[in-house]
Amino acid sequence: MNNTRHLLSSVQLGPYTLPNRLVMAPLTRNRAGDGNVPVTLNATYYSQRASAGLIISEATQICPEGQGYPYTPGIHNAEQVAGWRLVTDAVHAKGGHIFLQLWHVGRISHPSLQPGGGLPVAPSAIAPEGDASTLSGPQPFVTPRALETAEIPAIVENYRLAAENAMAAGFDGVEIHAANGYLIDQFLEDSTNHRTDRYGGDLENRARFLMEIVEAVTSVWGANKVGVRLSPAGTFNSMSDSNPQALFSYVAEALNPYGLAYLHLIEPRPDENSVSEDSEHSPLTCDYFRSIFKGTIISAGGYNQELAEATIAAGNADLIAFGRLYIANPDLAERFAVNAPLNPYDRSTFYGGDEKGYTDYPTLQLEKV
Length: 369
Ligand code: FNR
Known about the structure:
Blueprint (H helix, E strand, L loop, with lengths): L10 E3 L2 E3 L3 E3 L15 H9 L5 E8 L16 H16 L4 E6 L17 E2 L8 E4 L2 E4 L4 E2 L5 H17 L4 E5 L5 H6 L14 H19 L4 E5 L13 H12 L6 E5 L19 H5 L6 E4 L4 H9 L5 E4 L1 H5 L3 H6 L26 H5 L1
Parallel strand pairs: 3-4, 3-14, 4-5, 5-10, 6-9, 10-11, 11-12, 12-13, 13-14
Antiparallel strand pairs: 1-2, 7-8
């Protein structure tokens, strides 16, 4: 729109003036402490990355049933709120901004991770392909239990309570994780939603669960501190829809009246290292949604500095989220500013473990010492 639109220029996001347009993408790292409580090590990791314009936390379960992997943090009890306070204080001490990503995995879980060893819940009793990640290693996914209509308000209420907890923990806002084949996405897409009640069938019905959650969460935070993440072309976690263009156009349009802080879109960019197996020729890119969604857009997926600058300059997105580059480069913004080389990431330390591959990636300053 003007010549100040570049990655390292400031941008308004809801009520916040961010110093740059880099977003640290939400990244599950499976390093929470006992009871799925964030610990000092997590605070160190996030504070190292506080020069990002915005940090979005790793996906965080809103209730015990929402957990699908070992050692992922929660935001449903007082200990977890206190643990997250370590993180938000550490990020704020460095002048950063951090949103919490609200998560319920739905069917992407396993009885061994569920309270009482129960079945994971989902819109319909359809099992994903592949294995769940459990404390004892990969185990085949089970067929989830379809939620009763009468159970759904309690889940929406759990999102609202988790949003309140996120506020108590000192976050600057929250992102509703409606992407990557987790519970909300399972309601949106018709391969996983075969319901015949008001939460299944036409687009309005399939989007109802998301919209009720948006209403619950914005009632706590105000819309301008709430974002929504979607993966319109994603196939991760055995996802598909018979008409993703119609579905996600509908959803983006339906989100307009709320005046959200942003819509966060994962690009359909095939990449041999990509965590998702996105389709190659999907038209569902951020520039497509630009004409539909009337607010701020964050785009993610396979970006490097050059592509990010081009996307911002073209006006196709307002901010760019980086995932794997942020894992390996805590000072990504500073590195971009001086065109410094980037540290390569070590995939073997992505999920679980200790400080190795987590808080020990060097900054430029450290490299010079
Ligand atoms: C992810 N991603 C992800 N997405 C999300 O919405 N919540 C999450 O908790 C996670 N966790 C996660 C962990 C790890 C180790 C990776 C690599 C990815 C997806 C992530 O936010 C991003 O969309 C992708 O990584 C693509 O961006 P990059 O890595 O190409 O910049």
